[in-house]
């Protein structure tokens, strides 16, 4: 929520006023988030399904865990693809996968269908975040709704940089410095441009998109026209996710 409110702070007022305004807007952002969470909890409780409540609660726990993982400064973790994928699952894919599974449970589907729904959501979420991390390097501020290179400027290491690091080990020293120096950001971008980091991240996203589509195709056969259309829409969504430009 903070990302929605803070960019609108007036920057040309006095330093003290800016601090007060920031503090006020942060309070509003927190309260708005609390309000939305409370509404979601009420809606969730109304379902009267403990298994679904557990799944969504798990997603919230994963979200907090993912955000905490992103804040780490430990070099071994920041430079680990395994750590990055775990963080990506927690931050993004968990909510999508557990929500998909929750829908299958609410509608009384079998355990097999429920697991396929989870697999679809997990892989769709991973593909989405991988492309999001690519767009941070290839998109524009106007198309993304945020500044391009936002992640790297905040010291966040994502898939394109991790893949580039495999080709250019010298990038590790720059990553370890945390990108606090603008010159390090420029150097990292230069190295990334020489590498296959962007392409490999896109390919990994495509792999997960294909796995998501495969999960839908593995659902039991049906003659229901609406169900078949819905399944095709879910498959189409996997391609929309990896071809989006914003």
TrEMBL record:
The keyword Transmembrane applies. InterPro entries: Isoprenoid_synthase_dom_sf (IPR008949), Polyprenyl_synt (IPR000092), Polyprenyl_synt_CS (IPR033749). It comes from the Eukaryota. GO terms for biological process: isoprenoid biosynthetic process; ubiquinone biosynthetic process. Keywords: Isoprene biosynthesis, Magnesium, Membrane, Metal-binding, Transferase, Transmembrane, Transmembrane helix. Its cofactor is Mg(2+). The chain crosses the membrane at residues 6-30. One of its GO terms (cellular component) is transferase complex. One of its GO terms (molecular function) is prenyltransferase activity. SUPFAM superfamilies: Terpenoid synthases (SSF48576). PROSITE patterns: POLYPRENYL_SYNTHASE_2 (PS00444). Belongs to the FPP/GGPP synthase family. This is Solanesyl diphosphate synthase.
């Amino acid at each position: 929520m903070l990302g929605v409110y803070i960019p609108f702070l007036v920057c040309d007022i006095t330093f003290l006023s800016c601090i007060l305004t920031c503090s006020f807007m942060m309070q509003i952002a927190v309260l708005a988030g609390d309000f939305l969470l409370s509404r979601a909890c009420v809606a969730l409780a109304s379902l009267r399904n403990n298994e679904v409540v557990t799944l969504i609660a798990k997603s919230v726990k994963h979200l907090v865990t993912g955000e905490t993982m992103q804040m780490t400064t430990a070099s071994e973790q920041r430079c680990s693809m395994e750590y990055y994928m775990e963080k990506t699952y927690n931050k993004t894919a968990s909510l999508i996968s557990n929500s998909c599974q929750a829908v299958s449970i609410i509608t009384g589907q079998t355990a097999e269908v429920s697991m396929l729904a989870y697999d679809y959501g997990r892989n769709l979420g991973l593909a989405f975040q991988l492309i999001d991390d690519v767009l941070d390097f290839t998109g524009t501020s106007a198309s993304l709704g945020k500044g391009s290179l936002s992640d790297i400027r905040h010291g966040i290491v994502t898939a394109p940089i991790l893949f580039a690091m495999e080709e250019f080990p010298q990038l590790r020293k720059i990553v370890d410095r945390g990108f606090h120096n603008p010159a390090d950001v420029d150097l990292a971008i230069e190295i990334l441009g020489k590498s296959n980091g962007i392409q490999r991240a896109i390919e990994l996203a495509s792999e997960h998109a294909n796995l998501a589509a495969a999960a839908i195709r593995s659902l039991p056969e049906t003659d229901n026209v609406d169900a078949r259309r819905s399944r095709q829409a879910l498959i189409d969504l996997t391609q929309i996710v990896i071809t989006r430009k914003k």
